Amino acid sequence: MTEMETGAVTDPAPAGAVTDRAPDAVTDPAEGEAVVDRAAEAVIDRVMPSTGGVIPKGRAGRAASASTASGRPVEPGPAVELAGVAKVFNAGRPDEVTALDGVDLTVGRGEFVSLIGPSGCGKSTLLRLVADLVPPTGGTVRVADRSARQARRDLAYGIAFQQAGLLDWRTVARNVELPLELRGLSRRDRQGKAREMLELVGLADFAGHYPDQLSGGMQQRVAIARALAVDPPLLLMDEPFGALDEMTRERLQDELLRICARKGTSALFVTHSIPEAVYLSDRVVVMSARPGRIVEIVGVELGERTEATRQSAAFFAGITRVREALRGTPARSAPPAGADQAAAGAPA
Ligand SMILES: Nc1ncnc2c1ncn2[C@@H]1O[C@H](COP(=O)(O)OP(=O)(O)OP(=O)(O)O)[C@@H](O)[C@H]1O
């Protein structure tokens, strides 16, 4: 199992890195601008699974959604397309694990799709396949009309995974700024954007703190701020709100929806929370226990989310639908959750 496969960052500070918070940027005397610190640069690839869409150096300023790395325009198509995808870990060995089998799934542009299922059913693996952090053993994975490999090179998505994956020798603000530095934004622009993102996640007062001075939930919010900082056309999120208190979680859910709606961002979102999946999603993909297969896709039609949505009959109906699917209740040929209540004139 490689580091890239696990997404773990076992040693975030590379050889020669300063771990006692020495100045973390190299100043370019010609520009008077801080440029990407060498230590951070050296670990970009290793922290990619959890650094929220870090931009590889050399692709600065390229519009990920509009063209490929070669500048070739990309035809609009699904954000993600999986066909017959399988993943077997350690094939042929005694510890062989079939994590996924026969997965077909399309995420439309601008669509919000959640994955839910029992622990170990392959949700994270599915996300890692899309992010090109592990290769499939069967089937095809396409992201924004490209191979997953090409999409990664083209910066076609941002990632926020379970582990915050912050660089502990950088301040909170400079963690959020990292992908912007790699994209070549001026100091002023990236500082402004970092401030905006930290305000969004309620951490403006902690911009100058270091990650180990924050709680786990706060670190997670910094990682979310960093993932959103580059306005990626596709977000891959693996339980990003799992460590948050309920009120913060609900607020960030609303913010995430607002951002996705405003930017037309597509999202593939892993969660263990049925209400969260229903609230956020256009469709909830329910997976079986290992080997993970899609057992049902529950469409959600709640309309614009408001204060009342979480109390609405349609919301509870959606929760019931997903719960039944998780329990293995035979799929019914019913309209999307929400549509039946609306048709019946049920109170919202
Ligand atoms: N790198 C790996 N090497 C070997 N087995 C792996 C690897 N990554 C995942 N697995 C196995 O694949 C299966 C699916 O794991 P995965 O983490 O995708 O599940 P999950 O649905 O995200 O679980 P959870 O909800 O508990 O986070 C598990 O049995 C896991 O042990």
UniProtKB/TrEMBL annotation:
Origin: domain of life: Bacteria
Region (Disordered): 1-33, 50-76, 329-348
Swiss-Prot/TrEMBL keywords: ATP-binding, Nucleotide-binding, Transport
Residue stretches making up the ABC transporter domain: 80-314
Transmembrane regions listed in the UniProt entry: none
SMART domains: AAA (SM00382)
InterPro entries: AAA+_ATPase, ABC_transporter-like_ATP-bd, ABC_transporter-like_CS, ABC_transporter_ATP-bind, P-loop_NTPase
Keyword field contains Transport: yes
Low complexity composition bias: residue spans: 61-72, 334-348
Protein name: ABC transporter domain-containing protein
Species annotation: Plantactinospora mayteni
